[in-house]
């Protein structure tokens, strides 16, 4: 039988793993902007990274619920460090000289048009170097804001209304995050106009807004499963610790 402390450690490890993997993936795939209209017939454009971002903020809310603001910020700082490490490695690989045979076997695309795979590799991944600055800036601000608003709503409601503090903190933090990341990455360090930044940021935010509302049942399901896994005693202990954190 697992001890209470072991269950807590396992829970934090699993939640942190989900958080880190999805945050890192969102940063890497965020270089692609796709047409919502071409995909679903709805107006607007989205960054590919925003598709999995709801997983990050749902996980943020769950960690905040059971491990408090300190638990959220701990994994957030670790994530920032790992994202930086990942992009340093990616940038270093773009500087490696390509093998001649690799260029030769990939000299044409599927339609037979001339194709430089090393140029494509560099073009895709070096976009991420501009995005990383905006992402880390927005991520840091967003996570601190999310954790702070979550605990403020927890205090204001006396620990009731999980949906309110989870959804409310996400809607506030992502309003800032959605604009900051695109403004820094594509306006300050890129070639977008301010109108393009505002247009994509607006679509990104309303997608996150809808996702936050629609994922509320998932949040309650996660609470149910976690409470069953931990047991009543461990659940109450963790929530009391998180509540004490909120009161500070």
TrEMBL record:
It is a multi-pass membrane protein. Its main location: membrane. Keywords: Cell membrane, Membrane, Transmembrane, Transmembrane helix, Transport. The chain crosses the membrane at residues 12-34, 46-63, 75-94, 129-150, 162-189, 209-226. The keyword Cell membrane applies. InterPro entries: YhhQ (IPR003744). One of its GO terms (cellular component) is plasma membrane. PANTHER family: QUEUOSINE PRECURSOR TRANSPORTER-RELATED. This is Probable queuosine precursor transporter. It comes from Hymenobacter psychrotolerans DSM 18569.
